[in-house]
Specification:
This protein is α+β, with helices and mostly antiparallel strands. It is about 30% helix and about 15% strand. The strands form three sheets. A five-stranded mixed barrel has the order 2-3-4-6-5.
C-alpha cells in the first residue's frame, strides 16, 4: 500500500469510527414517516396549486409575550433531557451545512445541525424563533448543549456525502455498531412543524421541484380565501429583513393545519405557507453583521420597493416587489412590539456571542441588537406606501 493510500485509510477510519461505546439506556422505535396530505393520483399538481391559492401565511400573534430565553415547547419532552439521545439515520445528504437525521426514541425524526464553524446553527435558531413570534410559520428550532447520536460516524455529514458520491452511503447503516456513539455539542435541532405537508411526489431527479413553493407564486394567492395582501407583503418584507436569499422552492413549505380523514382525498381546509430553511440569514453570508447592516431594507423607502437582486443568485425565486402600506404597517407593528430585552435574548439564546467561524471575530450581541433596531426603524419610518400592484418584475 502506498503512503497516500495508507493515509487515506487512516483518515477514513478516524472519520467513520464513533468515539465511545455505551449500550443505549433507551430503545429507539422505527422512524416515523413524514406526514403527507393525500393528493389524488393524476391530479397532484392542480390540487397542490389550489391549496396554495387558498393558503394563509400569518396568524395573529403577540410578540411582546414571547420568551426568547427558552426553546420552543417540547410536548414529548425528548428534546428537553440533559442528554438528548437519538439513533443515526443515514439519509441522503443535502446542502452544504453539516447535518444529519436522527431518530428519537418515540420514532420522531429530527435534523441535527452541528459544527463549531457553522453559522447556520445559530442563524436558523434566531430566525425561526423570530418568525414564529411574529405570527409567521416556522419549524421548531432547539439550541441544545449536547446530542448523543448512537451509530453515528464521527463526521456524519462529510462521511455520508463522500460515500454518496460513490454509491456506498447505505453501508453506514450496516457497518456502524449501534452501541457506539458520538456526542455533538452546541447544536441546532430542527423539529418540523407538526402538520401534513402538501407536496407532489417526485423522482430523485426532480424531488426538490416537487416540494415547497417559490416566492413568485405568492401573486397567485386569492385574498378572498387565502392570505390578504397585507399579510403577503409583511412576509415579503420579513424575508428582506432577514436577507433570506436562499429561497429555492424546497426551502419553503406548504402544509395543512388540519388532519385528513382516513381514506379521504378531500382538499385541505386550512393550507398554510411558511419558510422552512432560514439558515442563510442575517447576512446575506450567514451571520455577517457588516453585510447585514449594509443591506438596506428598501431600495426605495418612499415608494416602498424591495429587492434581493444584489444578493447571491440574484435573490433566487424572490421577485422585486412593491410593499403595500397595510403590509408595511403590519410588520412594523409586530417588530415594534419587541422590547430591547427580547431582542437581546433572541440573539443570546442562539449563542451569537459564542460563534467562532473560520478567522471570524464575533461582535457582541449588543451590536446585533443595534442593527436589528435600525432595520425596524427603517420599516417604521417609511411610507405611507402607494397603492400599487405587488409585482414589479418577472
Amino acid at each position: 500500500m502506498t503512503l497516500l493510500g495508507l493515509g487515506l485509510l487512516v483518515a477514513a477510519t478516524i472519520a467513520l469510527s464513533p468515539l465511545r461505546s455505551e449500550p443505549s439506556p433507551v430503545t429507539f422505535a422505527e422512524p416515523r414517516a413524514e406526514a403527507k396530505w393525500p393528493l389524488t393520483h393524476g391530479h397532484e399538481q392542480e390540487e397542490r396549486d389550489d391549496a396554495l391559492r387558498r393558503a394563509k401565511v400569518w396568524t395573529a400573534a403577540n410578540p411582546a409575550a414571547v420568551n426568547f430565553q427558552r426553546n420552543p415547547p417540547d410536548p414529548s419532552g425528548l428534546l428537553s433531557e440533559p442528554i438528548v439521545r437519538c439513533r443515526y439515520l443515514p439519509n441522503e445528504p443535502h446542502g452544504t451545512t453539516p447535518k444529519f437525521d436522527c431518530v428519537l426514541r418515540d420514532g420522531e425524526v429530527v435534523k441535527v445541525k452541528y459544527g463549531w464553524a457553522s453559522a447556520e446553527v445559530h442563524a436558523e435558531v434566531a430566525a425561526s424563533h423570530l418568525l414564529a413570534a411574529l405570527g409567521f410559520g416556522a419549524d421548531d428550532m432547539f439550541f441544545l448543549p449536547r446530542v448523543r447520536c448512537y451509530g453515528c460516524p464521527r463526521f456524519p455529514f462529510e462521511v455520508a456525502e463522500t460515500l454518496n458520491r460513490i454509491g456506498a452511503r447505505r453501508i453506514l447503516a450496516r457497518w456502524l455498531p449501534r452501541d457506539r456513539f458520538v456526542d455533538f455539542e452546541s447544536v441546532a435541532v430542527e423539529r418540523r412543524l407538526a402538520r401534513h405537508e402538501i407536496a407532489m411526489s417526485g423522482s430523485a431527479h426532480d424531488e426538490a421541484a416537487a416540494k415547497g413553493w417559490a416566492w413568485w407564486e405568492l401573486d397567485r394567492l386569492d385574498p378572498s380565501s387565502g392570505a390578504r395582501r397585507a399579510e403577503l407583503d409583511a412576509l415579503r418584507l420579513m424575508a428582506v429583513f432577514l436577507a433570506h436569499w436562499d429561497n429555492k422552492s424546497s426551502n419553503q413549505r406548504l402544509v395543512c393545519l388540519a388532519s385528513p380523514l382516513t381514506g379521504s382525498t378531500a382538499p385541505c381546509p386550512q393550507p398554510f405557507a411558511l419558510i422552512h430553511d432560514v439558515g442563510a440569514t442575517f447576512g446575506p453570508q450567514k451571520m455577517d453583521i457588516k453585510s447585514w447592516e449594509a443591506k438596506r431594507v428598501w431600495v426605495d423607502a418612499i415608494e416602498c420597493r424591495v429587492s434581493m437582486k444584489d444578493m447571491p443568485y440574484g435573490g433566487g425565486t424572490f421577485p422585486d416587489a412593491q410593499i403595500s402600506e397595510a403590509g408595511r404597517a403590519l410588520l412594523s407593528r409586530q417588530l415594534g412590539a419587541l422590547s430591547e430585552r427580547q431582542i437581546l435574548d433572541l440573539f443570546t439564546s442562539a449563542r451569537f456571542d459564542t460563534f467562532r467561524g473560520w478567522g471570524m471575530t464575533t461582535p457582541p450581541v449588543s451590536e446585533w441588537v443595534r442593527v436589528f433596531r435600525a432595520k425596524v426603524a427603517d420599516i417604521s419610518s417609511a411610507g405611507p406606501c402607494p397603492d400599487r400592484p405587488s409585482r414589479l418584475s418577472p
